[in-house]
UniProtKB/TrEMBL annotation, chain A:
GO terms for molecular function: iron ion binding; oxidoreductase activity. It comes from the Bacteria. InterPro entries: Ald_Oxase/Xan_DH_a/b, Ald_Oxase/Xan_DH_a/b_sf, Ald_Oxase/xanthine_DH-like, AldOxase/xan_DH_MoCoBD1, AldOxase/xan_DH_MoCoBD2, AldOxase/xan_DH_Mopterin-bd_sf. SMART domains: Ald_Xan_dh_C. SUPFAM superfamilies: CO dehydrogenase molybdoprotein N-domain-like, Molybdenum cofactor-binding domain. This is Acylaldehyde oxidase. Residues 17-119 form the Aldehyde oxidase/xanthine dehydrogenase a/b hammerhead domain. Pfam families: Ald_Xan_dh_C, MoCoBD_1, MoCoBD_2. Keywords: Molybdenum, Oxidoreductase.
Automatic annotation (TrEMBL), chain B:
Keywords: FAD, Flavoprotein. This is FAD-binding PCMH-type domain-containing protein. It comes from the Bacteria. Coiled coil: none annotated. Residues 1-220 form the FAD-binding PCMH-type domain. SUPFAM superfamilies: CO dehydrogenase flavoprotein C-terminal domain-like, FAD-binding/transporter-associated domain-like.
Length: 721, 325
């Protein structure tokens, strides 16, 4: 097993012993504790805030409101405590600062806010007529069009036209958002779980009119993020910093679980109309995919829902649109597999429907529509292992034994069903710096200001440096999550690893060349006079022919202060290829036909994502992504009461996520794939891909088990009664 | 965060005396619900900790099983006599919460846990049960998981306990003590319909506490089961559940007891279904007839109409399970 050779998690011992200090555990001398006062209705003007009773509480130090909070310029999404307007229920209208967290919360309960309620849109369907076109859909164009989709659809031999819906989700990382903000003069130290320390630094510097060097953001460990610890966290993050500046003391603000449903983003609800026109042989003639999704009344965000529809299959006539409806609800933002997750539910369900309509095997239908290049971008694929994923996944799953007719597999009184779906996610890459240093004692230090969300960044940074330099993995120390380090990529969009890998490898190779150059130039070295290309380094020992010398002995002579090399890797600004990771996911479900209960019993995923740095960690990423897919298919839904404009399941008892008993057997296959063009050292990101297609594979399996086509997520038992 | 006065009771008598002297105080044992309520802002101001009292015995006796109010759920479910002679109890508990919670939660606390209604659980949403007179937002709101039996204009929240449903089917009695009183009541009388006072969940008077629960031995208890239907495989409250107990002699049903969870504002006895079974042969036709009556009298809300049919099917499945070889 290749897993046997993969290094285990770099920081495992720290985490399981509690030595790893999460930012929620950090304290500062003299710090104040903050508590938010939040609005109970979805739309209002604040008429007045009486803070007298709160201030009278012993230990309450200050209450900040829009009337007395420092003015700061507008930033990401919403700047809080700047105006007497309530845009959504749960919006902070005051911040209480006290000597203890208990006092802060008690005082927050004593703040009396007078509101003038305003008309509110509390559900997407209430304002469907007012849907508008956003500026972008994620990083993609709002609309797309090629060929003559309407005419091709009208002329198609086979047509499908269905509406698919996906609900609001919340990220709900196990670790709540927290910030400890500490000013020293005009220097700001921010300790917070951040998916983007440099972006947070830049945002904070701008808000407080500082040079970026005056701000330091530290984030060594995160207890998950999934998109909720980047820009969406910024409004509350800046609030903690504002309070610390205004009060002249360190301030700690930690969100409550319920506040994680309103203040740190959400996956937006979507309503997707998907029309397919096809020939009798299954070849796609037309795809039309129109998405309406929720955004807030003050900010704009649209997931790139139509991405798979634009590029996954060969189709000459494609039109896609994204529209938004403003709802008095929290601001959506990217959540794991943003866009491609909900979008692939619609597309891969619809392709499955087409397969049944044509009486074609769903894989065969997909093979016939394989896109040999990206028809949306008009570029060749840098690499595309989709066909191999179909093959390998089908073989591992036993797909060949699948009866084509729904409702034919059973296990006792339970119906069984098999379904599959394709998966795709863009392989992004952004600029990254990194430095690698070797010290006199032989310890190697990798420095890269990226973050580890729990996905394994520490481990792969150490691995990359160890391999490229030729030292044992155990000799490498990693520093990340700090803006004093070389600027690394943010952790999101499955792009961090593909971004820092070339930088770390380049830095380590430069260091290696430097060490060899110094050795061959050193008369006291056994390598003296050799050609550099005759010299190798492995396990911390330099060798040439039958001569060898440990690096530490070389360093003691030529560089007792150690040697460092740095590198900067940036992507090609005019790519000649289209970059995606692909996969195929296969699901087996067990349905109680009388009671409607659905359980996923097997998930097989085959993925082609370039070079896998660490199979243990990569498998864990894919499994995590698949679990998100199970939740999307069967469990997760943020429930909003339309009369009140309030979320009524804002806790982990009532917002269902898959629990251990819901876990199927996971069978993950990572295919060998050469990725020569992305410039990422062959790496493609994998964090999102497991979530793509999974909900569709499960829904398709439910259809195969029951003959019921469910187009609204999550699939609830009453839909199968 | 509210200030909470905390008293630790040294004995049963001391606990009752504390309760008599501190009107409005609540007993806390496992605390698995109380701590959630306090985090969600539904906070008592005085707590009397009874968790250390010796009320945790599980005693299978000649005629009945007596379970101390402070017996841990996990211990009851794992008890070999309970598993053999009162399987519905063991099954109901095994289907409750998570192992961690079952290790802490007590029998008495489980019966008196408060509703999972999301409006009740949020401190500032309208809810007559939490804030009498504030209105019932669930009735015209998000009510997929709410009750179809026993509702009133003031409250449609379900009772959340699995164990209570099984105890109702097994005709348990509840031993209650007050400062200077002691009484025994059938478990059906422990729970109060919401009526126009939904803030009162139980028939316990001020300062009263449950000291034990008693369930008779019977052929029906031995042939009993608990079937729970839910949206995920574990750690979730019932969408619908059914406890069933049948006494069968020579293929004929001598007595039948059926109770349902997830459907009533209190654990709900399915009387019409029981009648349909009594005296009938223990065969699929009788089970179907009983199932057909399970939702008699139900009053569905806007989102939970499916519970009627789901309840019928769950009853049928439970009954079939009791007669499967």
């Amino acid at each position: 097993m290749i897993e046997d050779r993969a290094p285990t998690r770099y920081e495992a011992a720290q985490k399981v012993t509690g030595a790893a200090r999460y930012q929620g555990e950090v304290r500062a001398a003299g710090m104040l504790h903050a508590a938010l006062v939040t609005a109970p209705m979805p739309s209002a003007r604040v008429l007045g805030i009486d803070t007298a009773r709160a201030r009278a509480l012993a230990g309450c130090v200050e209450v900040l409101t829009h009337e007395n909070a420092l003015r700061i310029p507008p930033a990401a999404f919403l700047t809080l405590l700047q105006e007497p307007v309530v845009h959504f229920a749960g919006q902070p209208v005051a911040l209480v600062l006290a000597e203890t967290p208990e006092t802060a919360r008690a005082a927050a309960a004593l703040v009396e806010v007078r509101y003038a309620p305003m008309p509110a849109v509390t559900a997407l369907e209430q304002a469907r007529d007012e849907a508008y076109a956003p500026r972008t859909a994620g990083l993609t164009a709002t609309d797309s069009r090629r060929g003559e989709p309407e005419a091709a659809l009208a002329a198609a031999a086979v047509r499908l036209d269905h509406c698919y819906t996906t609900p609001t989700h919340n990220h709900l990382a196990i670790e709540p958002q927290v910030v400890l903000a500490d000013w020293n003069g005009s220097d700001l130290l921010v300790q917070t779980p951040s998916q983007a320390v440099f972006a947070h630094r830049a945002g904070l510097a701008r808000c407080f009119g500082l040079d970026i060097e005056r701000v330091r953001v530290i984030s060594p460990y995160l207890g998950g993020g999934f998109g909720s610890k980047g820009g969406a966290w910024f409004p509350c993050l800046v609030l903690g910093c504002l309070a610390a500046k205004q009060l002249g003391r360190p301030v700690r603000l930690e969100l409550l679980r319920a506040q994680m449903f309103t203040l740190v983003g959400r996956r937006q609800e979507t309503v997707q109309q998907l029309k397919i026109g096809a020939a009798r042989d299954g070849r796609l003639a037309a795809l039309l995919h129109d998405t309406v999704a929720q955004t807030s009344t003050y900010g704009e965000y649209a997931d790139p829902v139509a991405t798979p529809t634009r590029m996954m299959y060969a189709c000459p006539n494609v039109a896609t649109t994204h529209r938004l409806v403003r709802v008095n609800a929290p601001q959506p933002n990217p959540a794991r597999a943003p866009g491609e997750g909900p979008g692939s539910f619609a597309l891969e369900s619809a392709i499955d429907e087409l397969a049944y309509k044509l009486d074609l095997d769903p894989i065969e239908l997909r093979r016939r529509n394989f896109a040999d290049h990206d028809q949306h971008a008009g570029l060749p694929w840098s690499s595309n292992g989709l066909l191999e994923c179909y093959r390998a996944g089908a073989e591992a799953f036993g797909w060949a034994r699948r009866p084509s007719k729904p409702g034919t597999l059973s296990d006792g009184r339970h119906a069984l069903g098999w379904g599959m779906a394709g998966a795709c996610y863009p392989a992004y890459r952004i600029a990254s710096q990194a430095a690698v240093r070797i010290n006199l004692d032989g310890r190697v230090e990798v420095r890269c200001g990226t973050q580890d969300m729990g996905s394994g960044t520490y481990t792969v940074l150490a691995q990359l440096a160890a391999e490229a330099l030729g030292v044992p993995y155990a000799a490498v120390d990693v520093a990340l999550g700090d803006t004093l380090l070389p600027e690394g990529p943010y952790s999101g969009g499955s792009m961090a690893t593909a971004s820092f890998t070339p930088a770390v490898e380049d830095a380590a190779r430069r260091l290696r060349r430097d060490l060899i150059a110094r050795a061959v130039a050193d008369p006291r070295s056994p390598m003296h006079g050799r050609q550099p290309d005759q010299v190798s380094i492995a396990d911390g020992v330099m060798r040439a022919g039958n001569r060898s010398e440990p690096l530490i002995e070389l360093l003691a002579r030529v560089a007792p202060q150690g040697i460092e090399a740095a590198a900067n890797a940036a992507p090609n600004t005019k790519p000649a290829h289209s970059y995606y990771g692909f996969g195929a996911v296969f699901a087996e479900v067990r349905v109680d036909p009388d009671l409607g209960e659905i359980r996923v019993t097997r998930l097989t995923g085959a993925y082609a994502t370039g070079r896998i740095l660490n199979p243990l960690l990569a498998r864990s990423q894919f499994v995590g992504g698949l679990i998100w897919g199970i939740g999307m298919a069967l469990h997760e839904k943020t429930v909003m009461d339309k009369n009140l404009g309030r979320i009524v399941n804002d806790n982990l008892a009532d917002y269902l996520i898959p629990v251990h008993a819901d876990m199927p057997r996971f069978d993950i296959h990572m295919l060998t794939e050469d990725e020569p063009h992305l410039g990422s050292g062959g790496v493609k990101g994998i964090g999102m891909l497991g979530t793509c297609g999974t909900a569709a594979a499960i829904a398709n399996a439910v259809f195969h088990a029951t003959g019921r086509r469910i187009r609204d997520l999550p699939i609830r038992l009453e839909q199968l009664l | 965060m509210q200030q909470v006065a905390y008293h630790r009771a040294a004995s049963e008598d001391a606990a009752l005396a504390l309760a008599a002297n501190h009107p409005g105080a609540m007993f806390i044992a496992g605390g698995t619900d109380m701590l959630q309520l306090s985090k969600q802002g539904v906070v008592p101001t005085q707590l009397i900790d009874i968790s250390r009292l010796p009320l945790d015995r599980i005693e299978p006796r000649a005629g009945a099983l007596r379970i101390g109010a402070l017996a841990r759920l996990a211990d009851v479910a794992d008890h070999p006599d309970v598993r053999r002679d009162w399987p519905a109890l063991a099954q109901a508990i095994a289907a409750s919460a998570s192992p961690q919670i079952r290790n802490l939660a007590t029998v008495g606390g489980n019966l008196l846990q408060r509703t999972r209604c999301g409006y009740f659980r949020s401190a500032d949403l309208p809810c007559n049960k939490r804030e009498p007179g504030s209105g019932c937002a669930a009735r015209d709101g998000e009510n997929r998981l709410h009750a179809i039996f026993g509702t009133s204009p003031h409250c449609v929240a379900t009772h959340a306990s699995d164990l209570a449903v099984a105890l109702l089917a097994l005709q348990a009695s509840v031993h209650v003590r007050g400062h200077d009183s002691a009484r025994v009541l059938p478990i059906a009388e422990l729970f109060r319909l919401p009526g126009d006072t939904p803030q009162r969940d139980s028939a316990l008077g001020a300062g009263e506490m449950i000291v034990s629960v008693e369930v008779s031995r019977s052929a029906a208890a031995r042939r009993s089961c608990y079937l729970k239907v839910r949206d995920r495989a574990s750690f979730e409250f019932a969408v619908v559940s059914v406890a069933a107990a049948l006494e069968i002699e020579d293929g004929v049903i001598r007595s039948a007891r059926l109770a349902a969870g997830g459907v009533g504002t209190v654990p709900w006895r399915l009387v019409a279904s029981e009648r349909a079974l009594a005296g009938a042969r223990a065969e699929p036709a009788a089970f179907a007839a009983a199932a057909a009556r399970a939702a008699d009298g139900a009053q569905p809300l806007s989102q939970n109409g499916f519970k009627l049919e789901l309840l019928r099917r769950t009853v049928r499945r439970a009954l079939e399970g009791l007669t499967d070889a």
